[in-house]
Amino acid sequence: MLSLREGFDRYPKPKDITYSYGTAGFRYIGDLLDSVAFRIGIIASLRSISLGGKTIGIVITASHNPPEQNGVKVIDPMGEMLPQEWEPFANEFANCETFEEFQKYIKQKLQQVPDQRVRPRVILARDTRASGPHLLKAALDGIAVINGTATDFGMLTTPQLHYLTRCFNDPKFGRNTENGYYEKLLSTTRRILSLYDYTFLPSVTVDTANGIGGDKLSRIDSLSDVLNFGVINGKTDHPELLNVDCGADYVKTQQKLPAELQKSSPKPDQLYASFDGDADRVVCYFVDGKTNKFRLLDGDRIATLFATFIGSLLKQLSGVDITMGIVQTAYANGSSTKFIQEELKLPVYFTPTGVKHLHHKAQQFDVGIYFEANGHGTVLFSKKYTSELSIFLATTTDTKQKAAAQTLLLLADLINQTVGDSISDLVTVMVALKIMGKSVNSWGADYTELPNRLFKLKVKDRSAFKTTDAERKLVSPSGLQAKLDEEISKYKQGRSFVRASGTEDAVRVYAEAETQEECDNLGSGVCELVKAFS
Ligand code: G16
């Protein structure tokens, strides 16, 4: 067995790097992550011991980032992100330089647990990146030095590993195998459709960013006729093509079709979708048959579609007391927020970027819908939701009301309750459009987006950019926010903010305004100010 000392020496920490557990775990160039992957194996094991041996997950992925990058993150027993109070420990432990320090951190953590003899259990999965197998080996060694048991699930989407982690700790949630994931998705879809006498959903073409999502969609295709997907950018065995000119991040930030679709002629007025590299984000889009223009249906649109769908079903039930709220980030288009508040008459809350923030806020509602504009999100349903609807279902005799209540209950099984999941989110979009008889054009006409643009700037030190008010205002560098406010005030419906990325070494600038020209000018003006302050 590998000793702690041998493991520490086998995976030395590079001297000139300070690692940080960012928006979604540690992310760097894959070749620079060996020591972090080894240590994440230890962190996950310690987390498992601290929870009396509950199963913890590790995902090796850099999601939307370029192929040469990679990342590691820890999943908690109920499929949620590592609690934020563990992040300072993760940071200190990932950065300690000497074996003495390294050993001290482990001892300190173990001293805090009720029973140190508990054997940790960890499950792992990775995306398709070339550095994945190597980092997996390092993580397995980290688990081994703490005498943990590890199960490697091979290549999965990130949400599949979230699902599995939950299943190991909460068997009612589903079967703890990859097939269990598909069974739950397919049987729930079939049951919802049968309530409306449908047997299948129309096929949708999905750009899977040359990532793991392509393989998994093909698997779903082969298992059932309920769902059919045409996969493009499905070259899973070419990791160097991951997220290159394709995928959810490309489509959202460039506001255009994936390159592959630009070359062909997408069918007008048809639903298309793009996943990111590990299939935890989805954006939809279509080409308008009248104008021949690309129309993006991003995370904000998916949130409003789900709210409209769930709201319309709830409206059919009398006397059911269910609260619904929507959680967004500063990136949400101002028009979407207005639509939610004024048309849907629902409350909107803002949190900083990162699922870990949105997820917790959404848990405060019976139906908590959270989506980042980039397509990362889900809908959470409370225990009260299930019990109220079950009681309603048992008492009503009305066929239509029964179907509505059953659909609502089944949605809690269809939509991944642990994290944003491109596959289950897309299927929910398809189900919602089918049951509401809504076309993509009608979905796109719910509101008109304000022109918006996202910029990425390289700066000397991104940690100098500190924010408050759900990242909508800067508190540092000193004096910059006042300059930004002055710039923003020059534009009609102008809104802009600046924040440091938690997944890339860059600062992001978001701008929106009444016209595209004004938006572009505002964005460029803000970028100039940022450059002057960095
Ligand atoms: C991750 C997070 C998302 C976040 C995105 C960008 O996405 O899970 O919540 O919006 O990074 O974050 P930042 O602007 O801090 O770089 P993914 O899909 O890469 O896991």
From TrEMBL:
GO biological process: carbohydrate metabolic process; UDP-N-acetylglucosamine biosynthetic process
Name assigned to this protein: Phosphoacetylglucosamine mutase
Details of cofactor binding: Binds 1 Mg(2+) ion per subunit.
Similarity comment: Belongs to the phosphohexose mutase family.
Protein purpose: Catalyzes the conversion of GlcNAc-6-P into GlcNAc-1-P during the synthesis of uridine diphosphate/UDP-GlcNAc, a sugar nucleotide critical to multiple glycosylation pathways including protein N- and O-glycosylation. Catalyzes the conversion of GlcNAc-6-P into GlcNAc-1-P during the synthesis of uridine diphosphate/UDP-GlcNAc, which is a biosynthetic precursor of chitin and also supplies the amino sugars for N-linked oligosaccharides of glycoproteins.
PANTHER family attached to this UniProt entry: PHOSPHOACETYLGLUCOSAMINE MUTASE
Record-level Gene Ontology MF annotations: magnesium ion binding; phosphoacetylglucosamine mutase activity
Source species of the chain: Dekkera bruxellensis
Annotated substrate binding sites: 372-374, 499-503, 508
Pathway info: Nucleotide-sugar biosynthesis; UDP-N-acetyl-alpha-D-glucosamine biosynthesis; N-acetyl-alpha-D-glucosamine 1-phosphate from alpha-D-glucosamine 6-phosphate (route I): step 2/2
Cofactor entry: Mg(2+)
UniProt keyword terms in alphabetical order: Acetylation, Carbohydrate metabolism, Isomerase, Magnesium, Metal-binding, Phosphoprotein
Phosphoacetylglucosamine mutase AMG1 domain boundaries: 177-283, 298-436
EC number: 5.4.2.3
Catalytic activity annotation: N-acetyl-alpha-D-glucosamine 1-phosphate = N-acetyl-D-glucosamine 6-phosphate
Gene3D superfamilies (alphabetical): Alpha-D-Glucose-1,6-Bisphosphate, subunit A, domain 3, Alpha-D-phosphohexomutase, C-terminal domain
Residues that, per the record, bind Mg(2+): 63, 276, 278, 280
Top-level taxon of origin: Eukaryota
Domain Alpha-D-phosphohexomutase C-terminal: start-end pairs: 483-521
Active site: 63
Domain Alpha-D-phosphohexomutase alpha/beta/alpha: 56-85, 94-168
